[in-house]
UniProtKB/TrEMBL annotation:
Keywords: DNA-binding
GO biological process, alphabetically ordered: DNA integration
Superkingdom classification of source: Bacteria
GO MF term list: DNA binding
Membership in a protein family: Belongs to the 'phage' integrase family.
Start and end residues of each Core-binding (CB) domain: 51-134
Protein name: Core-binding (CB) domain-containing protein
Species name: Clostridium neonatale
Length: 182
């Protein structure tokens, strides 16, 4: 897990040192792949003995501020904030180290006993948040991109039966109401 963090930090340093890399995402991904291959046989530990901390809340505040500038409603922003707080409580690691499997585990825990449409809403939140992180270059790869929406059962509404329609027509008073039901 630290290998991934070191890999991302090294790529960030290379990008700062060689600004031409900022433009070419393919080169960045190629360099990251090379770093990952070299680090594969090594187990990296940190000198620092602090606990790993999450940066999700910090990134979430920036995300919500940007969405506020885009004109999203206060209610939508509040829902985003509540959801991202759940995400922060679930993970105790930086956004850059969260994998697709981590997000699937999160969805399995928070999506338990929820309807498929609710889980799909969670997936949309994750895709938007991690897509924004990638666009803003906080992360290289979007772990939510591979998440698939759950199948939502179709609800077939029953039409009015003839006798109910006749009762509705009989209850019409004004000509406008009668035209509406004719």
């Amino acid at each position: 897990m630290l290998n991934e963090e070191v890999s991302i930090k090294l790529l960030g340093k290379f990008t700062l040192e060689f600004p031409s890399l900022e433009i070419d995402i393919k080169k960045q991904l190629n360099i990251k792949k090379i770093i990952d291959e070299v680090l594969y046989d090594y187990e990296i530990t940190t000198k620092c003995k602090e606990l790993t901390t999450s940066d999700i809340l910090e990134r979430a505040k920036l995300y919500i501020a940007c969405k506020n500038l885009e004109g999203l409603s206060k209610k939508t922003l509040k829902n985003y904030s509540l959801f991202l707080n759940k995400l922060d409580m679930f993970f105790n690691k930086p956004c850059s180290t969260i994998s697709t499997m981590d997000l699937r585990m999160f969805l399995s825990v928070y999506g338990k006993d929820k309807q498929a449409s609710t889980v799909n809403g969670y997936i949309t939140y994750l895709k938007c948040f991690f897509g924004w992180l990638q666009n803003e270059e906080y992360i290289i790869k979007n772990p939510a991109a591979k998440l698939a929406f759950t199948k939502v059962p179709k609800v077939i509404l029953q039409g009015y039966q003839a006798d109910n329609l006749e009762r509705l027509r009989a209850s019409c008073i004004t000509p406008k109401e009668k035209v509406f039901l004719s």
